[in-house]
Structure to design on (308 residues):
């Protein structure tokens, strides 16, 4: 049964009551509060997205820049189109306690009969334990996101399925320098790597992500929570798969922004197949943001020598 035009428009006129914090307990297990995903700018609807019968020829398409997600990722930008002559879309995971209706009100520049939508996807921190995850033969896990057009009468189109890949955050290499933290803030890992140049080192960080661009080794894997676009990963690492340069290394922790948080506890580790080469922990507060993110920024936390 469709939602009906009046009910559908009433729902889409409401402000999205979507936050980025999942409660640890709720008396209403069928509300959007406990769904595995939330959609900023959408309206929660109880029940699985697979339940509404197909009653419309309209289709929805999603155009994600990448399909990687992490437990706790917040407001991952997703965009797409619906049509023909359809101005809303439903997003959800089959079997979840709720799905989300999102308005698609901007005409598509390439198709006069289609409309575009833009929303922020957030994923529960408990994703890794969710039975909705699909375990693949290659050992990866994916979350099947269903996207369905909803016509003006409230009839649903068929589902398009997009497999969102969960990053297991497994770090392996001949040398790994990692930084993780406990709050939704923008920290930056800086690693000074020995090099044959005037400075005697190259600095690897979010604006210069490779120690050796020619070989592509000694790379920063991810710029987590960049510009306070919270991805939930809270982890950055510089990883070598080949032979790291011999010499002295410096590890620094920079704080680009607390993103509204009072502080962030961090932990840095240097490891190789032989074991832990260095380790440090600490807490950064607002005072640490007084130095703008730049080469050489941050607090020196580990110094170590590497030799094979």
């Amino acid at each position: 049964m469709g939602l009906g035009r009046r009910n559908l428009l009433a729902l889409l006129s409401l402000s999205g009551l979507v936050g980025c914090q999942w409660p640890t307990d709720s008396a209403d297990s069928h509300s959007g509060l406990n769904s595995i995903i939330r959609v900023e700018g959408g309206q929660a609807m109880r029940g699985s997205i697979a339940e509404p019968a197909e009653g419309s020829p309209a289709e929805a398409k999603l155009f994600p820049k990448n399909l990687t997600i992490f437990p706790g990722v917040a407001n991952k930008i997703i965009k797409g189109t619906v049509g023909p002559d359809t101005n809303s879309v439903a997003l959800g995971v089959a079997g979840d306690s709720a799905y989300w209706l999102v308005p698609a009100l901007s005409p598509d520049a390439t198709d006069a009969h289609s409309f575009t939508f833009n929303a922020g996807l957030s994923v529960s921190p408990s994703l890794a334990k969710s039975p909705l995850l699909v375990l693949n033969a290659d050992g990866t896990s994916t979350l099947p996101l269903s996207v369905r057009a909803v016509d003006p009468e409230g009839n649903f189109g068929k589902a398009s399925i997009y497999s969102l890949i969960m990053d297991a955050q497994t770090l392996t290499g001949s040398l790994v320098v990692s930084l993780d933290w406990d709050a939704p803030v923008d920290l930056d890992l800086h690693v000074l790597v020995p090099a044959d140049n005037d400075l005697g080192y190259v600095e690897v960080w979010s604006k210069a992500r490779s120690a050796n661009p020619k070989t592509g080794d000694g790379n920063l894997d991810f710029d987590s929570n960049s510009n306070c676009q919270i991805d939930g990963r809270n982890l950055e690492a510089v990883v070598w798969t080949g032979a790291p340069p011999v010499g002295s290394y410096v590890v620094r922790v920079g704080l680009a922004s607390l993103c509204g948080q009072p502080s962030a506890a961090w932990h840095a580790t240097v490891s190789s197949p032989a074991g832990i080469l260095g380790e440090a922990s600490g807490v950064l507060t607002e005072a640490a943001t007084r130095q703008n993110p730049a080469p050489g920024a941050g607090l020196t936390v580990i110094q170590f020598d590497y030799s094979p």
